[in-house]
Amino acid sequence: MNKIKNIGVLTSGGDAPGMNAAIRAVVRAGIYYDLKVTGILRGYEGLIHGDFIEMDRKSVANIIQRGGTILKTARSDAFRTKEGRAEAHRQLVNQGIDALIVIGGDGTFTGAHLLTTEFDYPVVGLPGTIDNDLEGTDFTIGYDTAINTVINAVDKIRDTAESHDRLFIVEVMGRDSGLIALRSGIGVGAEAIMIPEANMGVDGLVTRLESGRKDKSSKIIIVAEGDEVGGAFNVGEVLKEKFPHYDIRVSVLGHIQRGGKPSCMDRVLASRLGVTAVEGLIAGQSGVMVGQKNREILFTPFDHAIKHIDAKEITPAWLKLVEILSL
Ligand code: F6P
């Protein structure tokens, strides 16, 4: 028997394009299955403070195409404490919310895992992060849009780099993950990518540039913000010393990568996963993230989703591909 009558939905951590499409799917699926849906503002922080709003089909009209999150988001220090989580649980019970859907990344799921285990409270997660650094799904909601934002920006940088015969070091997001750098680097035809998982180091980059073609008029190096060298400006300093003849510029793309209209891939992924999250809760799922792998929907326990064990596609074969293509 289905005991769930009222589900809460929140977005937490860094926002990602497609979060609104996910909220819309959760709300519409909830209504479809005769559930009440309560929106929680500003993630776990808003939950602790009881910032609730009732959601209806109209409250999610016209948002599928919008970046950001209408529920707003936050990173909550209070929720990291047991007292904070106890208060959050108290708010949920007081509000009559029987189960929760959280949309976010590894920080969000770390919190969700604790909420389910400490209070035996049903929570299902949706992978919403531009970083794509979660197990249990080929792609996270927001990643496709973010890498397209990166390639659009770097294509423009390539135009000016080519005109001036310059070497550009472009820093992309990914505090702990090089997945944005890897795909976008291949997409823009980068001469090299530097990512935390590959540990190329500046020496490796210098060797790559020394052995590379000398007649290229522009060069693009993509650096993930989490790379051990410490960001694009540090890489730029080292390269300026080693290659004084190069005209070097640095460009940090920053938060433009988190905004903008979600791509169709992200809208569809968010819609499919959002509906499945509601159906999963109704069927008794809890403590799991819903994801899509090889086109199949699957549920992965939170503590596994955040483990970064497969490091996804960052395999030697992909790194070799970057090297081959940069000839
Ligand atoms: O959303 C993930 C992420 O974009 C990381 O790649 C990045 O390091 C981080 O968020 C930055 O977030 P903020 O500026 O919100 O602290």
From TrEMBL:
Q: Under which EC number(s) is this enzyme classified?
A: 2.7.1.11
Any one annotated GO CC term? 6-phosphofructokinase complex
Q: Does the keyword Magnesium apply?
A: yes
**How would you classify this enzyme at the top EC level?**
transferase
Q: Where, by residue number, does ATP bind?
A: 14, 75-76, 105-108
Q: Name one GO molecular function term.
A: AMP binding
Chain residues that bind ADP: 24-28, 158, 189-191, 216-218
The catalytic site is made up of: 131
Q: What is one process in the GO biological process aspect for this record? A: fructose 6-phosphate metabolic process
Instruction: Provide the residue positions that the database annotates as binding substrate.
Output: 129-131, 166, 173-175, 225, 249, 255-258
Q: Which residues bind Mg(2+)?
A: 106
The record places domain Phosphofructokinase at 6-280
Q: How does it assemble?
A: Homotetramer.
Task: Return the similarity comment.
Answer: Belongs to the phosphofructokinase type A (PFKA) family. ATP-dependent PFK group I subfamily. Prokaryotic clade 'B1' sub-subfamily.
Record's protein name = ATP-dependent 6-phosphofructokinase
Q: Which gene encodes it?
A: pfkA
